[in-house]
Design a protein that fits this description.
Elements: H1 5-8, H2 19-37, E1 44-48, H3 56-67, E2 74-78
Parallel strand pairs: 1-2
Amino acid sequence: MPELEFIVGTQPVPIELGSIEAQNRFQRVIQNFVAALAQPEHPLVLFLDDLQWADAATLGLLAPLLTSSEIRGMLLMGAYRDHEFGCFATFGPGPDRNWPPAASR
């Protein structure tokens, strides 16, 4: 998003990494970006619809956003249809569900 350059300034070209390292870097960049926007003085509200179609990678990106101590001014709301099957059917509150993932508990 070229418009972000007006806010964060010109950024160096990132070095090429392996797939796991690139995914970790992406998650950290998103986490830092949300932390910069979501402040108690200026809260950030995110609404995600149709989470029943979310894939595991997307849900994996949400866990650090919900558990980070650096993000203090965010409200995340989600909606899903429990009668439709998708990756989200295995997540959610409940005794037989495993959300948030064990790594972020």
